[in-house]
Amino acid sequence: MSLIPKKGTVYVVDDDEAVRDSLQWLLEGKDYRVRCFDSAESFLSRYDPREVACLIADIRMDGMTGLELQNRLLEKHSPLPIVFITGHGDVPMAVDTMKKGAMDFIQKPFNEAQLLDLVERMLDRARAAFSEYQLAADRDALLAKLTTRESQVLERIVAGRLNKQIADDLGISIKTVEAHRANIMEKLNANTVADLLKIALGQNAIKA
């Protein structure tokens, strides 16, 4: 049997040791994997976006605040769902975090049942977000295999240009365009032009 809990990872970022200990005890008792940090800076240095996880963070902390931490994660396009712990006077600030995508906020002293419900909903969202994040990462890895010229050819294929038009655009022969197309199909593991478009356009192609 695996020693790692299967429910998911919960990051706790709070500069109050008593709060960290309380949350760790509560969440580990429900079979979550808990990783605690006493500052936003230490969390950011250890955070792995490839992990299915969620974040519980205090709004007011020494050093980087919870709001600043949220902004930093937004800059990194992190898929990590966030819930903030607030004091009574921080509610307007917490509302602002929700406008930026936080799932919710809980006030101290927090209700355990409410917190556990939030964690489960965050991890549900994290699993869905991680799946999308992984698809995007896989797509980027495939596209990174292309040479500059192949990327130029692909861009024109996506735009619906014919081989002769692509050849004229780039000042190369039609045979060279055909060779680039074959290389692109092979590198992107695409069997059809439809496959190629799905990879090149990502979610936009699927939605279309």
TrEMBL record:
Highest taxon listed in the record's lineage: Bacteria
Pfam families: GerE, Response_reg
Keywords: DNA-binding, Phosphoprotein, Transcription, Transcription regulation, Two-component regulatory system
InterPro entries: CheY-like_superfamily (IPR011006), Sig_transdc_resp-reg_C-effctor (IPR016032), Sig_transdc_resp-reg_receiver (IPR001789), Tscrpt_reg_LuxR_C (IPR000792), WH-like_DNA-bd_sf (IPR036388)
Keyword Transcription regulation annotated: yes
GO biological process, one term: phosphorelay signal transduction system
Gene Ontology MF term list: DNA binding
Domain Response regulatory: 9-123
Modified residues (4-aspartylphosphate): 58
Domain HTH luxR-type: 139-204
PROSITE patterns in UniProt: HTH_LUXR_1 (PS00622), HTH_LUXR_2 (PS50043), RESPONSE_REGULATORY (PS50110)
Protein name per the record: LuxR family transcriptional regulator
Species per Swiss-Prot/TrEMBL record: Hylemonella gracilis str. Niagara R
